[in-house]
Amino acid sequence: MMQADSTATPPITLIGALASCWGFIGFFSMVGFAMVRLSAHTIEAFAQPFTVLQWAVLIISLIFMAYSEGYKGFQKSFAPRFAARVHYLSSQANVLQLILAPLFCMGFFNAPKRRMITSTLLSTMIIIFVLLFKYIPQPWRGIFDAAVVLGLIWGLTATAIFCYQAFLTSKPVANPEVE
What we know:
By secondary structure, this protein is mainly alpha-helical. The protein is elongated. The chain has one domain. Helix content is 75%, strand content 0%. It contains 6 helices and no strands.
């Protein structure tokens, strides 16, 4: 008689599969919508000639946002945990987690207090920046939006890869931090 492996991942349930899909698709839809809106401002900015200063700011912004938002923010922090929480949902989701799966995967609830505070503060900061950026004239707004779009593309790519790996190996690389 074989003993069950206590470290094995619980089987995927129907509610879990639905929650995982909704968490993944919901998050990607929110970020994708933001990218489309920001891309419109970027395209508008490139319709006019840039000064040397504007080209320099664009290049510096792209490098900064690729590193800080894409690499440090998403790839090294958010994406592994998001993938772990999506994976967690696949076998252990409840009805509330199913309904609010994108928010669960982003760490807004059923997470350590520090994670929930961080998620809330980061989202608040993003909303404030969005509101303030409305007042920046073109082409500057498009220049900064281009950098944000690059960071988001990097972030979504990293998130998709981590989610793929979590389900391919059945072992997420991060702690889902579920409480």
